[in-house]
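Quick one: structure for this chain?
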Amino acid sequence: MTRIKWGRQARLGTALLVVFGLTAAACGGDDEPSAATEASDASASSSEATAPEATDPPAPEATDPPTEEASGIKLAEAQAIVEQFSVRPTQIPNTTPIEGDIPTGKKIYFISCGAPACEAEIPILQAAADILEWELTAISTDPTKPEQIPAAWDRVVNEKPDAVLYTGTPRSQVATQMDAAVANGTVAIACCVTDALENGLIYAISTPDQVGELGSIIAAWMVADAGGEAAHAVYLDLPDFPILSALRTEFEANLVELCDVCTHDAIEFGLADLATASDQVVSYLRAHPDVKYVIQSTDSTFSLPAALEAAGLDDIRIFGEGPTSATLADIDAGRQAGTMAFGFWEVMFSMMDAAARNFVGQEIELPAPPNWVMTAGNFPTGEDTFPLVEDLVDQYKALWGK
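Got it. Here's what it folds into:
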């Protein structure tokens, strides 16, 4: 069942409308003339014969246009944020070379969350494994069948790899299996989780703080794109992935900071709702014609451009994060306004880097992936998932002594 929640600014806007509506009713809703009105009419009647000849009223004094602070929209600040992150990154997350020889022949397992974005990570991990001369085993799962995740971890427990990499699964969901795997000597390395680094989980990237920054930049993009107008949006959320809560929190907070006259609703989708998500968003937009922005918590789950085009909703601006190759094609063709790049290559290579540092006994770096606002014309076209940092492979080879 889809739930719609009003964002904080939407509630505030409704409250203000109620206040002004009540004020207007109190000031002029009565058909009978007031005493002040009758007195004014009498005065006008008595002075009519002696009224002076009409003259033109004085011209109003020129006034400056309202400042950004007065309008409630910090357009210049939003534009500066977008400009900062619209430049293609040039530096990989890791910076310190690994000392000594990295052992070869290590067995690495990867448990995919099953979403298209997670499946796209498998060949990237394979590229890193080939450089390091490690053996990679990928276990794919179906996101609509959550029982497959613990089953995949059971396999890790039974087959005892040197390391297991995974994305998006809360430790609480597989605590028994993870503890057993760690007891076997398998180290756990994660992306996109909210869990602390303890009890065998030695590394995590795309942490809540890092994901939250994406939400802040997305809010800035929306305010900048609206060009000083009050923007109205609907935010598409996936509460089943706890890491995404930081994205929404920071989006909402920064939207309030940059544009206190902007509004948004939030629609929450469960995994079972995704098959009908496009239809539900179309219905929402038809019922709310003032909403012109759709913010996607992840591009890899929602496929809106075709649905909006078929519905004749060609004035909606879509923006998200974590694009697939299909998303990039939509941006290039003008069907989606833009996205926050997810550094698939940067994140996966950084996870493999953590394993390598663990195997040589070197301190593990905890970097953040690079951020990049991708819009039509500022990224390579006609390619599948690609490194944000163009020479990423060469930079990691240098760090790894390969």
